[in-house]
Amino acid sequence: MNRIIMVRVLAVLVMLLLFWLAFRKPRVIPGKGQSVAEMAIGFVKENIVDGVLGEQLGKKYLPLLSAMFFGILAMNITGIIPGLNIAGTSLIGMPIVLAIVAYIAFVWAGIREAGAGTFLRNALFPPGVPWPMYILLTPIEFINVFVVRPISLALRLFLNMMVGHLLLVLCFSATHFFVFTLGGVNALFGVPTLLGGFVMTLVELLAAVLQAFVFTLLTSVFIQQAASEEH
């Protein structure tokens, strides 16, 4: 158990606790906590799942995609929480795990919904292409679908959260240097770096939500493409 593992575990436990508190005694006329939780899940359902997968297919994958969205969001948010100060997704391990989950999900969806043969045919042999082109196109499609997709998902999440963390560290470290190390008149240089730190905190909050949204949306798109009977 090191610091980053502790942050990840804490983020997920807090997320689960909040949802448990909201839904432990569900009511027909919801209270404030239940209303907020329902709105949050409704946001994922309406803007990601149903919008990409449709209502029928979306029902099957809503639990997975909701868990993915809120799990990523919870671990992203820890980057701006005092005392934690690092996003659980800013080290490559967790983005890789999430990308593997997304990979398994869209492969499973393709086999389950379209059938293994149809899924592989759609993925590796796009229709409307002269057959000699498949000699070149099929290996490229294989790399794109089965290699590049999970790698791009992991790197996109990891790099965005890592860069945001480094910018926050730079801003607040510069403030500490100017104010406490140099002191005197030089402390005035700490004012813009401190303001920059607060601005970057707001940017990181936006990035935390956006990256959770993009990761979940792309996973939905991959599931939809895999599950369709034809492209």
From TrEMBL:
Record's bilayer topology term? Multi-pass membrane protein
Transmembrane stretches, start-end: 61-84, 91-111, 131-159, 166-189, 195-223
InterPro entries attached to this UniProt entry: ATP_synth_F0_asu, ATP_synth_F0_asu_bact/mt, F0_ATP_A_sf
* Record-linked Pfam families: ATP-synt_A
Record's keyword terms, sorted: ATP synthesis, Cell membrane, CF(0), Hydrogen ion transport, Ion transport, Membrane, Transmembrane, Transmembrane helix, Transport
The residue stretches assigned to a coiled coil in this entry are none
Tell me where in or outside the cell this protein is found. Cell membrane; Membrane
What's this protein's function? Key component of the proton channel; it plays a direct role in the translocation of protons across the membrane.
* Database matches in NCBIfam families: ATP_synt_6_or_A (TIGR01131)
Annotated family: Belongs to the ATPase A chain family.
> What name does the UniProt record give this protein?
ATP synthase subunit a
Protein source organism? Pseudoclavibacter albus
